[in-house]
Amino acid sequence: MASRLVLVLGDLFIPDRAPFKKLLTPGKIGQILCLGNLTSPLTYDYLRAIAPDLQIVKGDFDVEAPNLPLSKVVTHGSLRIGFTHGHTIIPPGDSDSLLIAARHMDVDVLLWGGTHRFEAYELEGKFFVNPGSATGAMGMGWWGEEEEVVPSFCLMDVQGDVLVLYVYQLKTDANGVENVAVEKVSFRKNAGLTTAS
Q1: CA distances in angstroms from 9 to 33, 113, 185, listed in the order given
Q2: Residue 1 — pLDDT band, cuts 50, 70, 90?
Q3: Report field, pTM of the whole predicted structure over 0.85
Q4: Cis before 91 (ω within 30)
Q5: How far apart are CA 177 and CA 197, in angstroms?
Q6: Which residue from 6, 151, 158, 161 puts its CA 20 to 30 A from 109's CA?
Q7: Helices (DSSP H) in the chain: which residue ranges?
Q8: What is the pLDDT of residues 148-188, one digit of tens each?
Q9: Nearest Cα to 16, choosing from 40, 36, 32, 33?
């Protein structure tokens, strides 16, 4: 399969608050992997307009979509990519529990949501990514009192056994001005992780 951009997002909850809408235009993204908690048919329609290949798993608040699977696996290049909302990972966000889930799904990359916080790391030859919340929705008990919610999403570019992850985060400076920061993280199957800003 040729390289194509894959949008990874989750925990949307608040469709009216979509700070990244200008960046997400139809025709540029080949596939969307949504990690649950769409909570709105309008959001589904919006995402389908960005990329017709929309893959969704069930989040803990997707009560109007009872038939969505809890997890899925897609293949890009030589990488098997699994994704799940994360509410079935116990304890939530625990690296050992995520590693068990990745092994169970037989994937090289595991995407999970539920914590509303961006995270990416490599563990035992597997790559783990939580894109955070694209709308900056507050988590439930995952944040410290002084921690600020940072809206974020990820774009993946997979070529062969290399995944390049572009992390988009809406950061606010000391003067209250919002700017989109982009970080690049690369993962090569059987080789590990490299980071660049």
Answers
A1: 7, 8, 16
A2: very low
A3: yes
A4: yes
A5: 20
A6: 151
A7: 41-50, 95-105
A8: 778 999 999 999 999 999 999 999 899 989 899 999 999 99
A9: 40
Q: How far apart are CA 88 and CA 101, in angstroms?
A: 10
**What is the spatial distance between Cα 88 and Cα 92, in angstroms, rounded to a whole number?**
8
Distance of CA 69 to the CA centre of its chain: 16
CB atoms within 10 A of CB 32: 20
Rounded to whole angstroms, the Cα distance separating 3 from 156 reads 10
Burial status of residue 12 (CB atoms within 10 A of its CB: 0-12, 13-18, 19 or more): buried
Tokens standing for residue 135 = 């709308």
What DSSP designation does 49 have? Answer: H
More confident residue, 60 or 15: 60
> What does the block give as tokens for 174?
């000391």
49: CB partners within 8 A, 6+ apart: 26
* Chain center to CA of 170: 15
- pLDDT for 22 equals 78
* Residues 124, 192: Cα–Cα separation, whole Å: 9
Strands (E), 35-150: 54-56, 71-76, 79-84, 109-112, 118-123, 126-131
Q: What percentage of the chain has pLDDT greater than the value 70?
A: 87
